[in-house]
Write a structure and sequence with these properties.
With 299 residues, the protein is mainly α. Helices cover 77% and strands 0% of the residues.
Length: 299
């Protein structure tokens, strides 16, 4: 999963960035995307020992440690009005990662990330009423139908997990906005990460007692937490200072492609031409929607 920046943590983008700053922003986005997908692939290497649930538990611990160090939340000063969205965000955060890793385990990295990507795409398309966005929604839906077409080997549980991840990512975006409006800085996201880690403590203890981790599996899981949570989060804080939000959203479209490449090169998860075309349709729909933003006539 791409680790979205916490709401309210990044200052407004600087107007008219210099070419040098823009190049740095693009390099940062590419590095963040690769880190995110390599981290997800690393976590999958620990599945034989820890399983998706165990990997997610370790990832939650790592994410909490990093976000607490960055956000430094004043937990005692939070009101119930602030704690409610934080608790919901914590629940969504854990469910989102668990559904993604379950999907990766069953259908592969490229397809899992493509299905999860439908969450932010749906949020973006729902915010407008342009004809071009309606067309993009149809194209994306067609791509998903192709990916989920009935076959003898179709894993509907894995597909369902990917779609659940999409719903959670959409909820994550909306909840982050609420948390950011009620709690300053990164304190809200840090508190949510802490709650999520606490929720996964019993699960982590059960996994350790039932399936003692090897040094290699634990290393892969920790790498997933660092590469897929900590690095993207910190890099995104830098990126949003140098890249306009629209360009940032456009580059997010590359993540399913990066996931497919990392899955193919690092995990040997090849895709047929039909699956590759369907992923391209979902990515292309998002690119077209963002690239034409503000130009198309309303429906």
């Amino acid at each position: 999963m791409h680790s979205a920046p916490a709401a309210g943590t990044a200052p407004a983008p600087r107007p008219g960035p210099t070419p040098r700053a823009s190049s740095a922003g693009v390099a940062a986005m590419l590095g963040s995307g690769l880190s995110n997908q390599i981290g997800a692939a690393s976590g999958s290497l620990a599945f034989p020992v820890l399983g998706p649930v165990g990997v997610v538990a370790v990832r939650q611990y790592v994410a909490a440690a990093v976000l607490l160090a960055v956000g430094r939340p004043a937990l005692r000063s939070f009101t119930w009005h602030q704690w409610r969205p934080v608790a919901l965000l914590a629940l969504v955060f854990g469910t989102m990662n668990l559904s993604l890793y379950t999907a990766i385990d069953r259908v592969g990295l490229g397809l899992a990330v493509t299905l999860e990507f439908l969450g932010p795409l749906a949020i973006a398309l729902a915010a407008t009423r342009r004809r071009v966005d309606a067309f993009c929604a149809v194209v994306a839906a067609a791509g998903v139908v192709v990916l989920m077409r009935p076959q003898t080997s179709t894993d509907y549980v894995g597909m369902g997990a990917g779609l659940l991840g999409a719903v959670c990512w959409a909820a994550y975006i909306l909840l982050n906005r609420t948390v950011g409006s009620r709690i300053p800085g990164a304190q809200g996201s840090a508190a949510a990460a802490l709650l999520s880690a606490v929720m996964f403590l019993p699960i982590g203890l059960y996994v350790v007692l039932r399936h003692p981790p090897t040094a290699a599996s634990l290393g892969y899981a920790v790498a997933a937490g660092l590469l897929a949570s900590a690095v993207p989060y910190l890099v995104d804080l830098f990126t949003l200072r140098h890249v306009p939000p629209a360009a940032f959203g456009l580059f997010m479209s590359v993540n399913p492609v990066l996931a497919a490449l990392v899955g193919w090169i690092g995990l040997g998860q090849g895709l047929g031409w039909i699956e590759a075309t369907a992923i391209g349709a979902v990515v292309g729909a998002n690119v077209l929607s963002i690239a034409t933003s503000g130009r198309g006539p309303a429906v």
